[in-house]
Design goal:
about 475 residues; mainly alpha; 2 domains; 19 helices
Amino acid sequence: MAGGRVLSIFAQILILPIIARYLTAADFGAVALAMGIVVFAQLLSDCGLGKSLVRRSEFVAEEWDSVFWLLAGMGTLLGGTLFLTAPLWEALFEMPGLSQLVQALAVVPVMQSLSAVSSAALERDERFVWLGGLRIVAVLLSLAAAVGLAVAGAGVWCLIVQQLVLFATLALGAAATSPYRPRLRLDPAWLTGHLRFARDTVGTSLVFTLQRQAPVMMLGYVLGAGPLGLFSMALRLLRLPELGVAGPASQVVFVRMARRSNDPVVIGTLYLAALRLLALIILPGMFCLAGFAPDLIPLLLTDRWGDVALVFALAAPAFALEASTSMAGMAFLAAGQTMLRLRMATERATLQIICTAVAVPFGINTVAVALSLFALAYTPRLWWYAGRAAPFARSEALAAIVWPALVGGLAWLVTALVVSPAVAQNAGLLIATAVGTTLVAWVIAALPQRAALRAAAAILRSD
């Protein structure tokens, strides 16, 4: 799963400089705003029922069919609502053309709802290799479409078609290869337990999405499409660790946790193991990239995107830390503590939105700093909540991230002040030095904790 995500993300990194040469910051801002509107419908299209089905120890065809048709109706309703309300969003943000972008993307939640149960069946059977391969194919096809349309002068629509091709390929691939085949039957009796699970899960997802989209919405409303486009480009890079490492890892680890749903202590142990490995992979690498960002990003995206580098560097601690600790969400779900997770998510989102609202009038760089400071301040509180669902020693959690963070922080200072300026004039040498420095940082972060890392890997491999 992670290999598939890494390969697909590497492909995105390769084509991003091409697309960036044909589109403006305002184009990226418009798409970010359109996707920010559609994403709320996307998370409702699944309602968390896919994860709920995976948690079931036995397969009951009537149960799966009932969930399928419920989601099919939900997705159709969401897609239709998006299509009809699109002009209202354009009027609210005073952004010409936004309506057409939202209407084109309205089909995405429909596709996701129709494929959710098929994807759940593949996860339940642990067909992770296939799921990873399917994502690679979907990403490559979508990126090829985006590049072709960008070169052809399609403008902002190349990014819209990219999303449509991506989700269509994922949906068709899951439906074609899943062992599940829907039949026309819907029995409400099979939905009761799932709906309780979905209530808290959807509530949490809505809160998390609001937390993530609040900066996008506020920047678009206060500063306009141009600054939002720069922030959106930075987000594309900042979210790579989550998409490429933490995301696929969570699918695998959740299955392991769900099998021990009656033993919260084991779930806590699995969380600590995942945290240790994710922190090693994400923190040093992200901080090294932050150090090279002022020279590397203009090289890759052209000088007109140079302002993205500072946003990336300032917000890197927030996204690195959140990706490293993100497996706590799977611990809540596996332990059945969805209401506790909802309380935590609501508290965190409320506080972060307040911090962002205070920072927005001062520009995108201030927003980036606010996000990083908030992530650092809230992590102990996150562990307090997670420990109530699945007990673990918070001292061990802190130990898992401190050394990789220190190594990454030192590498950030050295690269930003010494290494990157020294090689900035030679593009090949700059890229090679960035890769080499990151590898060295990983080795230094791993060596003192070899035994703990081996133990963590063994815990996650065990059934």
